[in-house]
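Task: complex structure prediction.
Instruction: return structure tokens for all chains below.
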Amino acid sequence: MSFQKQLSSGEFVVLAEMNTPKGVDISEMVTNARKIKERVDGAIIPDMDNGVMRMSALAGGVLMRQQGIEPIIHVYGRDRNRMAIQGDLLAAHVLGIQNLLVVHGEEMSYGDHVDAKPVDDLDELGIIRAIQSLQEGVDMAGFDLKGSPNFTVGCMIKPFADDTALDQELEKAQGKISAGAQFVIFPPVFDLERLSAFVQKAKSLGVPIISTVFLLKTVGIARYMATYEPGVFISEDLIKRLRRAPDREMEGVILAGETIKALRELCQGVRIVTLGWEHRLPAILDYAGL
Amino acid sequence: MITAERKPLDEIIDYIKPFSRILLVGCNECVTVCAAGGRKEVGLLSSALQMAFMKEGKVLDVKELTLERQCDPEYVEELVPLIDQVDAVVSMACGCGVQEVAKRFKEKPVFPAVNTKFMGASERQGVWAERCQGCGDCVLGMTGGICPVARCSKRLLNGPCGGSSNGKCEINPEVDCAWQLIWDRLKSLGIEKTYEEIVPAKDWRTSRDGGPRKIIREDLA
Ligand code: SF4
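Output:
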């Protein structure tokens, strides 16, 4: 069943984030994809995530299709103007990519090409409106298209540290949904009780909510996130659990698997983020019972 | 200097429609030189607005004041005695001035009466042209004193493109090809060799692309 059908039928979807290589050696990406092919419902392909130059998501999406995995590719405005975005969207449709995730590109200064000129012609809402327009057969300049594309479009909820910030995020998401977004992706929240309350609140959006499960690779990362990203709600107990584990790396994997299991009751899907540790996905899925 | 052009009257009227007392503030610097928002333009706009209100059977009370510099908080203070007597402020300064006034008087709506255009120079009476984009890392030393970032339509740093013809730009035949100007100038200075140097991809961090900029001079601050 396609991702879109699963979403509309209310089924729980499991999505794995798969990064493209920095270079043309696709062997690792392809090998990792093959290992999870029958076990996930789709792969999310980030595009120049965190401002790091890599093979573009369009090619990554096509590669995933070739491996038999349904791709969902990132679309963002930092590096492309409205011409390039629209052109790539038409290309995506023709190449069989049916799902888009409209995201905010990380600031150039945080990436690896700090001297590059950002474009920022369209913001996330602008991109979603452009997608709608293309689907209606007209480009942003009002010209008719010869054949129009068709997409399932999602948007992101940025990390929020409290209810007020969540309210603001929900308001923004509501605007994107009115413009055409059909699902939202929540940031990682490790405190499931809190997440449950947040998701309950976000149900007012009226679209499927997919939560992020973030693989904690090291105790250091967990500690960093706990300190600098209060919205993830990583408790001291959780850090202790990781620190005391005989195999800390495996403990992170187990934790991710357990979280996925628990999320089945809370939302309509998960996005598993491993940030380059896609080879750990099969183990995470094992622990999630998938 | 910073150049500007007055906004269409209808747009300004739209802003101030709900009010009956406004403060119209000009600036004695750049916008005076490019005849967009100096004392004279303040007077003209004031009459035009009052007449437009009269036609609608309404009265508009306009207080006029032209500051030495609207981008300087020190001069903006001069508006203090007038601010309580008005409902809104209309600024005829560039965007910098409008924002200084808005920052100072948080409780008053402030509207722009001009469109700020570019940093440029006067070519002849009544004609101003763009000269600088404030990229923050001046290349004029390599390009014979002619800026390709501001004056080449494609911002080429290794120009010209294939479209330069008879010294004019392919984007607009009214515009001189910046790279023709650069070449001519380098030749007349006898330093054509400079042209052969390949300019690497520009670091745009120093430009607006790196986010809003600020200068801090420790020796003056
Ligand atoms: S013709 Fe000259 S000014 Fe115009 S885009 Fe080409 S190089 Fe630049």
